[in-house]
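Hi R.,

Here's the chain you asked about this morning:
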Amino acid sequence: MQYSLGIDAGGTFTDAVLIRDTDGTIVQKTKVITTYPDPLEGISRAIDELNPEYIRNVKLVSVSTTLSTNTILEDTGFPVAAILVGDYAIPQEGFPTQNYIMVNGGHTSNGEEAAPLDEDKVRKFAMEVKDKVAAFAVSAFFSNRNSDHELRVKQIITELTGLPVVCGHELSQEVGAYDRAITAYLNAQLLPITHKFIQSILKDIRRRGIEANLLMLKCDGSVIGIEEALEKPIESIFSGPAASLVGASYLAKIDTCAMIDVGGTSTDVALIRNGVPEISEHGAIVGGWKTMVKAIRMETLATGGDSHVWIHDRKFHVGPRRVIPLCRAAQQYSGFLQQLKEVKSPSKKILDENIQPTKFFVRTGFRPIDLTKSEDEIYDYILHTPVSYVELVQKMKKQPSTYAINNLIKKRLIQAIGFTPTDVLHALGELQKWDTEASVIGAERLAKLLQINPEDFCRQIKHKVARNMATGLISYLIEGIDDNIVQRILSGENFTRFKIETPVVLLGGPVGAFKEEIEKLIDAPFIVPENADVGNAVGALVGKGIKRVEILIKKHFAPITGEGVSDEELKQAKEVTEYFVFTPEGRKVFEDHVSAIEFATETGKKMVMEYMRNAGYCDNEVTIEITRKDMVITEGEMPMETKIIVLGVGTSRIVMEKNCIPDYMRKKAFSFSKALDGSYSGR
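And here is the predicted structure, written out as tokens:
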């Protein structure tokens, strides 16, 4: 019997599932706390808890991870130098590195050279910074129309330094040289980190005797092999929500559905249509940087199972900060339950997000760097066992700065413990995963501040969380709707109610507890499938191969020229209409629109099939859909621009007939050897 292993290293938990290949049945699952900042230890622990007999028969491993996202958010990527070819205008916020230059060169929108490439300046800069960086990023004006200058810069840098070079046109064919530059820069930052991550996973599964193919999930919900994962790690940002969406569809056995995934930090809403995730028209934004990476369109709410519930100005608030739930802390830290029972409450007058009768602080183990005097003083009194604000006051003999505490949390030097929606469910008896007594004590402490019954307090929070989920779902499905209108309809006071025809799949550990509450707000077929608590790991495994190729056809007018033609005749000559076809392989010119359309379509299909074959799919396992979008200025005339979109979708790895796996395995064996011998390492 053969099995496939799916792994999702999320922000709170790392999940692993084993699926039997013959029928797609989930035979075992596990959930462990994610190890931070390195998720590899958590992944290894998750695999350790699975049946070794099953593990030895695993033939496919697929991984979804927050590694790329966290690296960009925390600015912990490797140093990269950037070369911008053309007359760039750098925004006020600046470029993400000081190691960049702008050089003459680039092309026009028609693919013609705008200026000669300044190769001498490229050479000089490369030699100046080669010992300071791990990779280079290159972006040129209209490289999506003509990539010659980017490729020439890449050749020069490779010959001079031997370091990896990422070109903008390799990652996107969209217009926008600066955004391509940002995307190339971030991708270059991730190369060494991704190489190390994949190399470590390969060594771990080989150590266990697993002879399996390794795949990774992209942020559009598709899976890729090692080679592309190593070359384009930027495409794995937000792969967690993508995994959830694909997993929701698989678990519910529905090709078209909306999804609400309640995680520890946030709640994500997304939609899958006919087995293909809905993609955002705009590039994904991560860490404040706009990229050209096509990710699933999603609505993210700052409410999750671990969101902090706190009291201020006689009202309760949920989030946006994430904390360790009281119930989990009581099991994680010896003596914490007794401490929670005995700790004194701070004055109501000074309550804020960090000053609560149920909030505690503990060190994370990160090494402190560049602390202010106030931060350093507070940090000395926060040890590896939890301490409350009142206890800090007693130890320091003065009130510590909540601003400094906040900075220590932002710097990830300390972590907060507090009351959460997870505690709410424990206190109500709807979840029994950790220490219920700690949750009950927390509910009593906070309810007392509001002078209400603890059970009523918990039910109000539960309703608030469900309402946030409902608001996010409606805002996603009806883009642009005013929040006030959503809230008025959800209140039920106007004899109106939202009705959704599409099934809505709920994912996340405790999500079933909110089903009844959200059904009161929205009339929709809500589904909590079996194994909803590990939907992300399932999605990491059952993602399909998906490849999109977009090719632009542009109408161009060129004057008639030629020897023996008089000036008068040239003045009277008509323009010749040409059609430029821009593909990742270069520009082609055609005399008529029909020929241009045929070439673009066939080229797109060829590129899709090459990608799918390299990913191990046979031709009969790929469905191709072609969409044409015309931009017409005057009705009846030929379009000024035409975009041909070729979408290829391969069958899921779990159910596909594996009649061409031998070729696929040979390709992956080659990939493994390159990954393990360090061929992809930058520095």
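One quick note: The two ends are 41 Å apart (CA to CA).

Cheers,
M.
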